[in-house]
């Protein structure tokens, strides 16, 4: 397998290559050096499969982190709007109480 083929290989093709080398290690007449080399090649392909899966998982995790950050920003914006509305309501209550106070004071004057 060339480098270009290795880069473009699907997980299934990598798994097939790993299986081929793993089974080659079990063949009779290969010897312990040949078996070790075949097992190392098999391990190489299996490690690449795992690396690609981890890479996909990290992309999903990164995407989820960005979504969570945007949700937090949205929550903070909603809290700011709620605080602003609460302050506006408080100001209106103060104005209404001030008007009531002036009306009561005006009635108490003879």
What would you say this structure looks like, in words?
- The structure is a single chain.
- The protein has 110 residues and is mostly helical.
- Helix content is 90%, strand content 0%.
- The protein has three helices and no strands.
- Helix 2 packs antiparallel against helix 3.
- It is rod-shaped.
- The model has no long low-confidence stretch (mean pLDDT 88).
How would you describe this structure in keywords?
single chain, mainly alpha, 110 residues, 90% helix
Topology:
Elements: H1 3-8, H2 11-25, H3 31-108
Short description:
The chain has helices spanning about 5-10, 10-25, 30-110.
Radius of gyration: 36 Å
Number of distinct helices: 3
Low-pLDDT parts are none
End-to-end gap:
106 Å
Query: Can you summarize the main beta sheet?
Result: none
Instruction: Give the tally of β-strands.
Output: 0
Determine the mean pLDDT.
88
Instruction: Briefly note the structural class of the backbone.
Output: mainly alpha
Gross morphology? rod-shaped
């Amino acid at each position: 397998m060339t480098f270009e083929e290795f880069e473009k290989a699907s997980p299934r093709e990598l798994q097939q290559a790993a299986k081929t080398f793993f089974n080659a290690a079990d063949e009779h007449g290969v010897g312990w050096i040949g078996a070790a080399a075949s097992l190392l090649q098999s391990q190489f392909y299996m490690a690449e499969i795992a690396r690609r899966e981890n890479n996909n998982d990290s992309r999903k995790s990164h995407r989820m982190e960005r979504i969570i950050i945007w949700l937090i920003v949205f929550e903070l914006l909603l809290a700011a709007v709620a605080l602003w509305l609460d302050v506006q309501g408080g100001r209106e209550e103060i104005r209404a109480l001030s008007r009531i106070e002036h009306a009561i004071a005006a009635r108490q004057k003879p």
